[in-house]
């Protein structure tokens, strides 16, 4: 219980840093903290394979991509312009409070279908073997669909960031083009 | 060791989801909106893993694996779109991107 409480407090602290930090790099570091703590929570939930995947895929690969794009686009500066919709922020706070309250009611009226000790034993500690077996039997169709999705994502992201082909400028003389070629 | 009740995990998941929603609504840089969406996805994953333990069934954990793959693909495409928009508009402020006119 103590482990869970410490992890939960750190998770929420990371989440608050993520949505409140003015510098985008600080916010993404807050999210890295949250993701690592969620990985710890997965370990307490007998999901060892998912805990490892969370660290490698989320805290590793996805966050590197995020940091790379933040630095590439110089997005770490906060937005300076006046907010055209100033009423959204308090509204979002109220909505978030209502949502959290609804989840709390949901959580504390939920009854476990059977004793936790019994169901925990059936999980086989969430080891890669049993998870992979489920993935390749009951989840075979989603698994194959996701592999196509990943292919589409790779091709799509390459196509999106491709530079448009340089169009021939009719005004440009051959000498100028040669000069530009030298500079480039 | 006494097991932590599932209710605590669901409550934590709710708090994380609410934080993510507030972030999506209040942050004004497209990249920050994406970070908040990641927070919401993690909240959903957390409750899936908690329910997987409650029911003693690995299906919930396997679904989380699929969701993680989806999230990674979504981030790759989403960030590529943000980079493409930044090249065209020199901004990632979502207020300026309200119109989809090229």
Automatic annotation (TrEMBL), chain A:
<protein>
    <recommendedName>
        <fullName>NADH-quinone oxidoreductase subunit J</fullName>
        <ecNumber>7.1.1.-</ecNumber>
    </recommendedName>
</protein>
<dbReference type="Pfam" id="PF00499">
    <property type="entry name" value="Oxidored_q3"/>
</dbReference>
<keyword id="KW-1003">Cell membrane</keyword>
<feature type="transmembrane region" description="Helical">
    <location>
        <begin position="55"/>
        <end position="73"/>
    </location>
</feature>
<dbReference type="InterPro" id="IPR001457">
    <property type="entry name" value="NADH_UbQ/plastoQ_OxRdtase_su6"/>
</dbReference>
<dbReference type="GO" id="GO:0048038">
    <property type="term" value="F:quinone binding"/>
</dbReference>
<dbReference type="InterPro" id="IPR042106">
    <property type="entry name" value="Nuo/plastoQ_OxRdtase_6_NuoJ"/>
</dbReference>
<comment type="function">
    <text>NDH-1 shuttles electrons from NADH, via FMN and iron-sulfur (Fe-S) centers, to quinones in the respiratory chain. Couples the redox reaction to proton translocation (for every two electrons transferred, four hydrogen ions are translocated across the cytoplasmic membrane), and thus conserves the redox energy in a proton gradient.</text>
</comment>
<keyword id="KW-0874">Quinone</keyword>
<feature type="transmembrane region" description="Helical">
    <location>
        <begin position="139"/>
        <end position="161"/>
    </location>
</feature>
<keyword id="KW-0472">Membrane</keyword>
<comment type="similarity">
    <text>Belongs to the complex I subunit 6 family.</text>
</comment>
<keyword id="KW-1133">Transmembrane helix</keyword>
<feature type="transmembrane region" description="Helical">
    <location>
        <begin position="24"/>
        <end position="43"/>
    </location>
</feature>
<keyword id="KW-0812">Transmembrane</keyword>
<dbReference type="GO" id="GO:0008137">
    <property type="term" value="F:NADH dehydrogenase (ubiquinone) activity"/>
</dbReference>
<dbReference type="GO" id="GO:0005886">
    <property type="term" value="C:plasma membrane"/>
</dbReference>
<keyword id="KW-0520">NAD</keyword>
<feature type="transmembrane region" description="Helical">
    <location>
        <begin position="85"/>
        <end position="108"/>
    </location>
</feature>
Automatic annotation (TrEMBL), chain B:
<comment type="similarity">
    <text>Belongs to the complex I subunit 4L family.</text>
</comment>
<keyword id="KW-0813">Transport</keyword>
<keyword id="KW-0472">Membrane</keyword>
<keyword id="KW-0560">Oxidoreductase</keyword>
<dbReference type="Pfam" id="PF00420">
    <property type="entry name" value="Oxidored_q2"/>
</dbReference>
<feature type="transmembrane region" description="Helical">
    <location>
        <begin position="64"/>
        <end position="86"/>
    </location>
</feature>
<keyword id="KW-0520">NAD</keyword>
<dbReference type="InterPro" id="IPR001133">
    <property type="entry name" value="NADH_UbQ_OxRdtase_chain4L/K"/>
</dbReference>
<dbReference type="GO" id="GO:0048038">
    <property type="term" value="F:quinone binding"/>
</dbReference>
<comment type="subunit">
    <text>NDH-1 is composed of 15 different subunits. Subunits NuoA, H, J, K, L, M, N constitute the membrane sector of the complex.</text>
</comment>
<dbReference type="InterPro" id="IPR039428">
    <property type="entry name" value="NUOK/Mnh_C1-like"/>
</dbReference>
<keyword id="KW-1278">Translocase</keyword>
<keyword id="KW-0812">Transmembrane</keyword>
<dbReference type="GO" id="GO:0030964">
    <property type="term" value="C:NADH dehydrogenase complex"/>
</dbReference>
<keyword id="KW-1003">Cell membrane</keyword>
<protein>
    <recommendedName>
        <fullName>NADH-quinone oxidoreductase subunit K</fullName>
        <ecNumber>7.1.1.-</ecNumber>
    </recommendedName>
</protein>
<keyword id="KW-0874">Quinone</keyword>
<feature type="transmembrane region" description="Helical">
    <location>
        <begin position="6"/>
        <end position="25"/>
    </location>
</feature>
<feature type="transmembrane region" description="Helical">
    <location>
        <begin position="32"/>
        <end position="52"/>
    </location>
</feature>
<comment type="function">
    <text>NDH-1 shuttles electrons from NADH, via FMN and iron-sulfur (Fe-S) centers, to quinones in the respiratory chain. The immediate electron acceptor for the enzyme in this species is believed to be a menaquinone. Couples the redox reaction to proton translocation (for every two electrons transferred, four hydrogen ions are translocated across the cytoplasmic membrane), and thus conserves the redox energy in a proton gradient.</text>
</comment>
<dbReference type="GO" id="GO:0042773">
    <property type="term" value="P:ATP synthesis coupled electron transport"/>
</dbReference>
<dbReference type="GO" id="GO:0005886">
    <property type="term" value="C:plasma membrane"/>
</dbReference>
């Amino acid at each position: 219980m103590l482990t869970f409480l410490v992890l939960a407090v750190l998770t929420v602290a990371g989440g608050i840093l993520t949505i409140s930090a003015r510098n985008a790099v600080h916010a993404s570091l807050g999210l890295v903290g949250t993701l690592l703590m969620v990985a710890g929570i997965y370990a307490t939930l007998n999901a060892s394979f998912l805990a490892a995947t969370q660290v490698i895929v989320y805290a590793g690969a996805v966050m590197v991509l995020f940091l790379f794009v933040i630095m590439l686009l110089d997005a770490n500066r906060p937005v300076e312009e006046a907010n055209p919709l100033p009423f959204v922020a308090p509204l979002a706070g109220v909505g978030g409070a209502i949502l959290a309250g609804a989840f709390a009611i949901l959580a504390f009226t939920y009854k476990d279908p059977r004793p936790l000790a019994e169901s925990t034993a059936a999980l086989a500690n969430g080891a890669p073997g049993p998870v992979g077996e489920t993935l390749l039997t009951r989840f075979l169709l989603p698994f194959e669909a996701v592999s196509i999705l990943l292919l589409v994502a790779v091709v799509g992201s390459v196509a999106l960031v491709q530079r448009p082909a340089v169009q021939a400028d009719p005004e440009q003389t051959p000498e100028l083009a040669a000069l530009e070629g030298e500079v480039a | 060791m006494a097991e932590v009740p599932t209710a605590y995990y669901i409550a934590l998941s709710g708090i994380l989801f609410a934080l993510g929603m507030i972030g999506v609504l209040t942050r004004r840089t497209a990249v920050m909106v994406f970070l908040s969406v990641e927070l919401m996805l993690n909240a959903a994953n957390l409750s899936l893993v908690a329910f997987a333990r409650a029911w003693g069934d690995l299906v919930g954990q396997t679904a989380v694996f699929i969701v993680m793959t989806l999230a990674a693909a979504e981030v790759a495409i989403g960030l590529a779109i943000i980079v493409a928009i930044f090249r065209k508009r020199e901004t990632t402020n979502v207020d300026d991107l309200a119109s989809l006119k090229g």
